[in-house]
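<instruction>
Derive C-alpha cells from the sequence
<data>
Labelled lines for chain and fold
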Amino acid sequence: MPDKVMIVTGASRGIGAAVALLAARRGYAVCVNYRQRRDAADAVVAAIQAEGGRAVAMAGDVADEAQVVRLFQAVDRELGRVDALVNNAGVLDTQMRLEDMDAARVSRILATNVVGALVCCREAVRRMAPRHGGRGGAIVNVSSMAARLGSPGEYIDYAASKGALDTLTIGLSKEVAADGIRVNAVRPGAIYTEMHASGGEPGRVDRVAGSIPMQRGGTPQEVANVVMWFVSDEASYTTGSFIDVSGGR
C-alpha cells in the first residue's frame, strides 16, 4: 500500500487529471474526485493503473457539504488517512459583464469555488492535524491569475471567488502551520483546458496568447509540476505562498 494518500477534487479532466497522474507516478494513492463525468474519471484511474499506480474514482459535488463529508469518509475507508489535498474543482459561467449577472449565478460560483474549498480544507485538517491523530500534510489550492487581473467583461464573479481562495490560503496557512500542515496556492494563467468552453469561448487561450509575455498558453502538466513541488519535501519550509503559472502574464 502506498505510504501517502492524495485527494484531487475535480480530477476527471484538465489540471486535476494532470495532477492525479503525476501524483500517482510519485507514489501517492489518489482519489480522483469528479462531479458528473464518471467516464472521464474512470479513464484517469485506468491510466494510473496502467502505470502501476493506485487510484479510485469517487463522486462528490464539493458545493454540497454532505457530499464532501462522505467523500472524505470514503477515502478513509478505501485508501487511508489523507496526506495531501489539491482543491482543484472550480466552475465558471458564460462571459458577461457584471451588470448582466444575477445573484443565483454568483452564488453557484461561490458555492463551489469558495465554500467547497473551505469545507474540503476543514475535512482535511480534521485528518491531518496531530490533535486529530494526523501526521501533518499539505494543501494546495488551485487559484487563478483572474484573482489578480479581475477578468473584466468576462467573469468577475469567478475572479472574485479566486481572490477569496487566495485569502483562505493565507489565513489557513497561518492557522495550521504549527500542526505541520502547509497550505499554498498556484495561480494558473491561460491554460489549455476545457474550462474555457464553459465561459462560451473554447478558443480563448489562442485569442489571448499574444498578450502573454511567453507568447503561448500553458499546459495542465506545467501546472501539475508546480502543484507537486508544493506537496513535496522540497517545499518543506514553504507555506502561505503563491506561484503564478502564467507565462509571465
